[in-house]
Please model this.
Amino acid sequence: MTTTPPEGSRPGSDADVAAANASARAKVLGWARRSIDLIPTSWLLTGAGAVLLAGTALFGGLEAAAVDPTPEAAVGETFAGSDLEMTVVGVELRDERGMAGVYPDEEEQERLLVVTVDVVNTFPAPRSSVSGKKTSAVVDGIRIDGLEEKAAVSRADDGTSSPVLQPDVPARLLLAWTVGPEDFHDGEEISLTLPDSTHYVGKSVVRGDFWDDVRVGATLTTTIEEVAAP
Model:
C-alpha cells in the first residue's frame, strides 16, 4: 500500500522552497548587520553627506545665487543711496584750507585732499550730513581707498561744519582729509566708495527713522587735480 505524504512535506514542495529562501535571507541580513557594525560611524555620516551633496548638486540645489556687481559711478554722475543723491564733482590736492573743515600743519608740510560733492537729501525731513558711527550711511560715509579715517564735511559756500541737509535742497559739500606731502600727487588715480543702506522705522525700543546695514553702494575712480596756492 502506497501512502502519499502530505503536500507540505514533499521534497521540492513550495513550503520547502519558501523555508530555504527565508533562511538564506536571514543569513544575508545577519552578515550585512555585522558588516555595518564594523564600519565607523563617522564613515557612515561622511558617506551619507557625500550622497546628499551629490544629489543636491545634481539637481542644482547648491548652485550659488547670482550676486549683482557693485555699480561703478563716474565724476558728474549721480548715485542715489541712503535717500541721498550724491554727485562727485572732483578731487583736489590743496595747499590752503579754504572752506574745508580741517587744519593742515604747515611745519609738517601737510596738505588737504578734498572731494567736492553735490548732495540732495531726498528724504522728507532734515538729516545730518555726518554720523557718529564708524560706518556711515550719509555723506561722511564716502571713503577713499587707502585712508582709514572719515572725512571732515563742510559746506563749500560758507564753511559750515557737519551741515544739516534740508529736504530737496541741493548742497555742495567738501570732504577733506589731511595728508602728508608724499601721500598723494597731482594726476594720481584714486578710488572712492559711496555708501548705501536700508531705511528702517523704529517702533519699539528705538523710535524714529534710521539707516542701517551700511554697505558700499557704488565705486568711483578718478584722478587728483592739484590746486596750487595763489
Notes: Confidence is low (pLDDT under 50) at residues 5-11. DSSP finds two helices and twelve strands in the chain.
